[in-house]
Amino acid sequence: MGKSIVQLADEFVIYKHSLGYIYDTQEYYLRRYCKFEASYGCSSVLEKTAVIRYIDSLAGSPGTLYGTVSVLREFGRYLYRHGCKDVYIIPDNTVFQQTPAPPYFFTQSEIDEFFCAVDKVDPHPQFRGREYIVPAFFRILYCCGIRCKEARMLRCENISLREGWFDIVQSKGPKTRRIYINDELGDFLKDYNKKIEQFYPEREFFFPGYDSHKHLSEGFVAENFRRFWNLAFPDFTGDIYPRAYDLRHHFAWANINRWAADGMDVNVMLPYLMRYTGHQTIKQTLYYFHFVPDFYTTFQCMELSLEDVIPEVPE
What we know:
Layout: H1 5-18, H2 24-40, H3 48-56, H4 62-81, H5 108-118, H6 130-144, H7 148-152, E1 159-160, E2 165-169, E3 176-180, H8 183-196, H9 218-232, H10 246-261, H11 266-277, H12 282-286, H13 295-309
Antiparallel strand pairs: 1-2, 2-3
């Protein structure tokens, strides 16, 4: 085809954007491979030996490995359809998505202690406004159950504190959903926004990183969650160590428990939870039923009440 892998990657990313995909993480994986192939001295694009050597080098990072293999496979198929017949297309089932770590379920006292520690964050001379950003960031995870990445990538242009909502734009696939927030969280975020604007008057992201045009990194979120958890619970010895993502799990199962305890039809409410959390199917939302520890007690009480209504059927 006469084009370099960088040129072909550019065309591929443009193609994905034309379909409505943001494709930011996938582009990052693709660009990393392009640099590797350029230094490897390949005679053709997506040469088999180079691809295999590269994915072998990612064996210690299962998440990156899975994402990279998916992107390179899709890139290879794209090139094949456009006349590049000698590209190596990674076979299906070469690697499997890693099994998610079991979620940690917070008690209400743990939530209270964690946020008590978060609210004591000190200002940092090299990160302006950190004392406001960190408490607001973790509260939006807790109150809305959105993914960490969705909060990190939330842009100012996609939030209306006056009307009480923000838009999650194309988090997984070319879909956007609107998240409505209650008055308490809305007032907290308005106060946060007023304070953080003094540091970043023209910021792009609602939770800025070290300057107005950067967002918080994945590592920053993970490190700070662990930091404040350790401050709140220095002697913690649980079998499962909590993560920031577990605030999303907490949001889901806490709502399921509350609906059941209030006598609401959980089956009717699940589609609302599915849309709010950004799941593609009800099956993904039903995942939480396997882990909800308090729901079984509630369900037993529901069963007892049903026994009084439904008569016993004689043999």
